[in-house]
Design goal:
Distance between the termini: 64 Å
């Protein structure tokens, strides 16, 4: 029995900038207990497959798995539904399928024999449907600026901590941040990854864990980048709070915030000096 092939899709390892050299086509062994590991550099050729490698980065339930041929970002379900407990340096065997440039896990097995079932191999994920609806009611991850918190669960996040976010992104190897936005259920950000790729990030607004990284199709490098900790310090010193959006547009930093007097404002800031050039009411 051989691994089932499908229409070619973008090579996952190439998305992370890793070359796949001299790889041998993967096949399943005669014993049905376990599939032969597939080189990560050949993930585009298979669907229901098993890969093995070492974890080199972890963001919530997402992690990078490497073998000698390359590396791939593995998704293991939303962190609000379960915590798979993967740590950097773990040696894992992961069964799942290709999902665009990434890999969707169904089971994870550690070298010491521990195993975690992420989702059924076939059918919808268990965190859909009613489970998702409940999570959205009880753990709303987005701002509600226009009405008070009126449901169960923790109070919704209503502002960005730019200093903490900047430190977390830097620690994870991300640079040249150009856009940060507090969405309804996550923080979105645009940055350059450790591998030098322009990426879009989804970030948990409570713990600032990185939920997902996706390649940005617009791979142009920005001329200006955000220094989030420095920007956070300046805004705090000037009395601005409740930051919800920071971006670079037409060579200026634009910030949505609340000024003294509880008035929502839009700021235009010089990216080199961090001087505020313009403040206008955001009605």
């Amino acid at each position: 029995m051989t691994a089932r092939t499908t229409r070619r899709r973008p090579i996952a390892a190439a998305t992370f900038g890793a070359a796949a050299l001299g790889l041998i086509a993967a096949t399943l062994p005669a014993a049905p207990a376990r599939a032969l590991d597939t080189p990560i550099g050949q993930l585009d050729q298979y669907r229901d497959i098993t890969i093995s490698g070492t974890v080199s980065g972890v963001w919530g339930n997402d992690f990078v798995l490497e073998d000698p041929s390359g590396k791939v970002l593995v998704h293991a379900g939303p962190h609000w539904y379960h915590d798979v407990g993967v740590k950097e340096g773990d040696r894992l065997t992961v069964t799942g399928r290709v999902d665009g440039p990434n890999f969707e896990a169904s089971t994870i097995t550690w070298d010491d024999g521990r195993s975690f079932t992420v989702r059924p191999a076939d059918g919808p994920p268990p965190w859909g449907g009613k489970e998702r609806e409940k999570a959205e009611r009880d753990r709303d991850h987005g701002p509600r600026h226009d009405r008070a918190h009126d449901g169960p669960g923790p109070r919704p996040v209503a502002e960005l901590d730019l200093r903490v976010l900047g430190e977390r992104l830097a620690a994870a190897g991300y640079t040249r941040i150009t856009d940060v936005d507090l969405e309804r259920r996550h923080i979105s950000a645009e940055a350059v990854s450790r591998d030098g790729l322009q990426v879009e990030l989804h970030i948990d607004p409570r713990g600032y864990d990185i939920i997902r990284e996706r390649r940005d199709e617009d791979d142009r490098r920005p001329d200006i980048a955000l220094d989030l900790p420095a920007l956070a310090g300046m805004l705090s010193d000037r009395g601005y709070a409740t930051i919800t959006d920071v971006s670079i547009d037409d060579g200026l930093i634009e910030v949505d915030a609340v000024a003294r007097g509880n008035q929502r404002v839009e700021l235009e800031i010089d990216p080199l000096t961090l001087n505020i050039l313009r403040e206008r009411r955001d009605d």
